[in-house]
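Structure tokens
________________
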Amino acid sequence: MPCPVCGKPTIPWFTPYCSSVCKTKEPKQPEKRNPTLYDFFRSERIVNPRDGYNIAGFVVGKEFRYFESSNLMLPAVVNALQEPHGNEAIYTNRRETMWLKDYPLTKVKFMDVLKNNEGDGASEVTPKLLTEKKWPRRIISTELAAPIAGGGLYACASKVRKTDTFVEGSRDRGLARALRYYMLAAYSLLDISNQEGYQGLKNYVGALLVSDKGEILAAGINTGKFRHAEVGMLLSYFRNNPHASSIPQNSVIFSTLTPCRGCTGFLTLAKSTNSVIYFGQKDTGKDGKIGQKISSPLGEKTKAPMGRSSEALTGTVEPGESEGGGVVSLCAASAIHKVQIDNGLASCMGEGSIATQIGKAKDSRGIIGSASEALIHKMLKSRTGGSDEDLIKQAVLTYIGQWLGSTKSVE
């Protein structure tokens, strides 16, 4: 038996101490240590979280700085990524938030990688809860009344087929046209973002979340790293609706590009049982194939969104409107050209992922800008017939114009 004072061997049936000197000393106490990162993540609340409770944080010196959240749609890992932390790994306790693992330039780890007395898990830390949360920049606009009385946009989006022939002047035909207007609005948002110099704009991808009645509930633009357009859009919606666990039923999402792997993960987690996701331009990279599992190209369901430009762009053909690729001249005398935006952008790109090339291609800004020109042209067009189709188109175009005219980027 070791001596409780000095640890030397003793004669157990004679004395528990090794010498008379040791008898006069206090028993040796075990060394105290600060809790480790492993210890911190072994608490019951973290290991077996209730409801949507989740945490995420990183080590700075001897501190483990972390955030808490009670909503998986607003995961603490986003706040940790927004906080300056160098290249340190970020640890979280919920796999449901790990859609971030699919984004480049992020180092997010689940707590089960930590080991007791080994590696990062053995780091002695003082936990520090951070309460001032930072979020990716978001797009806001003036609150406006929904333009489609009685709704119906989702039903049209979920059933529309390119072979459908809607009766001229009908409400369904107006709703089908409205789908293209909202996609044009997503492209136009990028045009505005570029002109206004929105902070951190990357890759020129935009996304809109639209209700069944045509109200734009949230919007996002790509501002880099994990802050892709769809992520910004969803985080904006859930910030405005912190008790929601999914986007609204019967809603439609419009993205200018096929969702990537990470955005597909978040969209899958957040979408409702009744929702439709459309994209404008197909991403030719491997992530684009993953995104097509939950989304469809709008141009394959209805007539592709067409931009409008006063300058001839690559691919101009003889006058006459058609659904061909590139740019189609409306009138030789007016020098106004119509642009099938998805094909026009694709023609600017080289090999590989389109997402990384859009902002660099020489003609892409002009093609994106043509969406704004097309919307303005449609808004100024007189519709005096008073049919159900005209009423839907006019209401949606007026709404989109007012929404785009008041958008701004905020923290």
Notes: The chain has two domains: 37-129, 138-410. The chain is about 30% helix and 15% strand. The CA atoms of residues 100 and 310 lie 42 Å apart.
